[in-house]
Design brief:
Layout: H1 6-28, H2 86-102, E1 111-116, E2 120-127, E3 130-139, E4 147-153, H3 160-165, E5 169-173, H4 191-196, H5 204-221, E6 227-237, H6 239-250, E7 254-260, H7 282-288, H8 310-317, E8 321-325, H9 335-351, E9 358-361, H10 374-389, E10 398-399
InterPro entries: AB_hydrolase_fold, GCE-like_dom
Signal peptide: 1-26
Domain 4-O-methyl-glucuronoyl methylesterase-like: 123-353
Length: 423
């Protein structure tokens, strides 16, 4: 079909603009891009929350803003001017996301112990006088270890064959053991809630993120003979894509975050979902399961009053590796709003000189939900090589489907600054 048809012209324009955006970010990447591998520039290795010591002021009363919040504006109203400022600005976004969207993750527990073998990981947690335990299955690739690993939430939708063939282990993590679905908000169940209480206001997605962090704690303690704690990725599809997004955003030890078809309560901007035809409503995502924190219920009817949006959750991952996979063929998944979140977050990557470390791909042919796709195989391999094996330096790729191409310009009234110095 020729591109002279108006709708096809729009499709071509969307892909062209996305490619131009990628080219711009790649040009801003430092020549020594390999320096940004692993934990990322300016991030202390082996630290779950590098900005825990930052002084974060209490947010004031929120005012309605139909545009996406400026990720470069601090809570005190001043603007980030240096790359080194991002560390504490990220800490502010983290606090906003916990307070208004996900609920509190809680700092590392008083005691985390466990074991790592070639077939499993066990985790034992004690905090605030309460204890819980859970485990995860391990599948090692061929060859000598120790190996990088990808934590796979939920067990479907991830291309585990390609992950193992690329040289990374697969950690099969059942998040429902940590935060069970099908429970009321005032009686949540699972390992997280056994420690922090069944009436905790923290939603399941953050509970799942907490569990993944405890797996990494145990890998760190194991001495690295089997798995490398500094080369961990995370992925998952659908509800587990929502979870993978939260895992990568809230633990800076994750070197590569790969959410797949996450839908509402995952990648899509909250402000965009109500106006996107067929997308799962915010109220539906909030009530379907207690995925989001209890506080988010106040914003389902008016997300414009939220002081944070999901493009800033994307930015929390920066400058670490991020490969976002979306399905534009299923309206319920809100991929147009997802593309806006990715493009908005990519502006932070660009400002940090890490524009080549984010990839977004929604240009796919197979409409089936959580299918293993040929289009994603090569970028998956490239991201594993770059961020986990550290043997490659392929630039990120932005491939936005014209079927669900969002326009970031419609959603922002801020500009991306040129940040000075080093991260």
């Amino acid at each position: 079909m020729r591109v002279h048809h108006p709708r096809r012209r729009a499709w071509a324009a969307a892909v062209f603009l996305a490619a131009a955006s990628l080219a711009a970010t790649a040009l801003d990447a430092p020549a020594g891009a390999a320096d940004s591998l692993g934990a990322g520039p300016g991030i202390k290795p082996g630290v779950e929350d590098d900005g825990a010591d930052c002084a974060v002021p209490a947010p004031g009363a929120g005012t309605a803003n139909s545009k996406l919040p400026d990720p470069f504006i601090r809570l005190d109203g001043t603007r980030v001017t240096a790359k080194s400022d991002w560390r504490c600005r990220r800490a502010e976004i983290k606090k906003l996301a916990e307070r208004f969207v996900y609920g509190e993750k809680h700092p590392k527990p008083a005691s985390v112990t466990g074991t790592v073998s070639g077939t499993s990981i066990t985790v034992n947690v004690t905090d605030q006088g309460r204890s819980s335990s859970f485990s995860a299955k391990v599948e090692l690739p061929s060859g000598p270890g120790p190996f990088p690993a990808v934590v796979v939430l939920g067990g479907f939708g991830a291309d585990t064959a390609t992950i193992k063939a690329s040289g990374a282990a697969v950690i099969s993590y059942d998040p429902l053991a940590v935060g069970r679905e099908g429970t009321p908000r005032n009686n949540k169940q699972g390992a997280f809630y056994s420690v922090y209480g069944s009436s905790s206001s923290t939603g399941l997605l953050m509970a799942w993120a907490w569990g993944a962090s405890r797996i990494i704690d145990v890998i760190e303690q194991s001495g690295g003979g089997i798995l490398k704690a500094d080369a961990i990725g995370v992925t998952g599809c659908s509800r587990y894509g929502k979870g993978a997004f939260a895992v990568g955003a809230f633990d800076q030890r994750i070197a590569l975050t790969m959410p797949i078809e996450s839908g509402t309560a995952g990648l899509p901007i909250y402000r965009g979902v109500p106006g996107e035809s067929g997308a799962q409503p915010l109220s539906s995502a909030y009530s379907e399961q207690p995925w989001l924190g209890d506080a988010f219920g106040a914003f389902t009817g008016n997300p414009a009053t939220l002081p944070v949006d999901s493009h800033e959750i994307v930015a929390m991952v920066a400058p670490r590796g991020l490969f976002i996979m979306e399905n534009p063929h299923i309206d319920w998944l809100g991929a147009r709003s997802g593309s806006v979140a990715a493009l908005g977050g990519a502006e932070v990557y660009k400002a940090l000189g890490a524009g080549s470390d984010i990839s977004y791909w929604s240009d796919i042919q197979d409409a089936n939900h959580c299918a293993v796709r040929s289009e994603w195989k090569a970028p998956l391999q490239q991201n594993i090589r770059k961020f986990l094996l550290r043997t490659g330096d392929d630039p990120g790729v932005i491939r936005v489907s014209g079927k669900k191409a969002g326009n970031l310009a419609e959603w922002r009234n801020w500009q991306t600054p040129i940040l000075t110095g080093q991260p």
